[in-house]
Design goal:
Elements: H1 2-12, H2 20-29, H3 36-46, H4 51-62, H5 84-87
Family: Belongs to the eukaryotic ribosomal protein P1/P2 family.
Region (Disordered): 66-113
Protein name: 60S acidic ribosomal protein P2
Length: 113
């Protein structure tokens, strides 16, 4: 994905036919290591194609994908195994009590006088 993004950035910057060196240089400047085979694959796949047309074709394919809707829930919950920990009464755990601190008068420099 980073190679395609670099290719797209170069096209948007005015380079209509980015080379492998262009993409590698851009990624290096961004602090990203590139794999030469992957860069070569992107360049060879997009060579001679208009990036805007490629994006439009991709968007058409995305409309046929199912991208949500949530999972279906079963009508009844699955039975759970009963363990000794579940059958024993739970011990009540009380949170530790905080020691109350006395209020101190804070001098606000006559702010509310």
């Amino acid at each position: 994905m980073k190679y395609i993004a670099a290719y797209a950035l170069l096209v948007l910057g005015g380079n209509n036919a980015p080379t492998e060196d262009d993409i590698t240089k851009l990624l290096k400047e961004a602090g990203v290591e590139s794999v030469a085979a992957d860069v070569k694959n992107v360049v060879s796949t997009l060579k001679g194609k208009n990036l805007n047309d490629v994006i439009k074709e991709g968007q058409k394919q995305l409309t046929s994908l199912s991208v949500g809707g949530g999972a279906q829930q079963s009508s009844a919950p699955a039975p759970q195994a009963t363990t000794a920990a579940q059958t024993a009464p739970a011990a009540k755990v009380e949170p530790p009590k905080k020691a109350e601190e006395p209020e101190e008068d804070v001098d606000m420099g006559g702010l509310f006088d």
